[in-house]
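Person: Please comment on this record:
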Amino acid sequence: MRRLLAAPRERAPWYNATGVTAYVTAALVTAFALRAIVAPGQGLPVAPGMVALDIPFMVAVAIACLPVFVTGNTIARWEGVVFVLYYVAYTAYLILTASEHALLPQFQSFMLWFVVPLTVLTVAVSLYREYGLRRAVASQ
């Protein structure tokens, strides 16, 4: 606990991320609990499309935000471009799904086998680079 309180300005992004996560989790648990109290025996309906795409996409974007939190809450231009491209890809997926377009399977394959690994690699490299920079600063 002392370590967490030692440098509050440096750790502010982590406090923010942790606090927001705890708040949202508590809100979801409260919503599910109230639903169970009001209508016992019935679950909360979730559309299959949300389970298949929306929720995993939100989790992926949250993970992609980790380097932004670690690098002092600054978004580089290339990171901003990546987030805009994610938004465009997500919107394109929604349009292709709604119109039942013939290119939907190819688009899904492209997203799964190219964009997802590229995102994981980018997050890993960004975190590793930031870790190296902080380690170099700490050793000086």
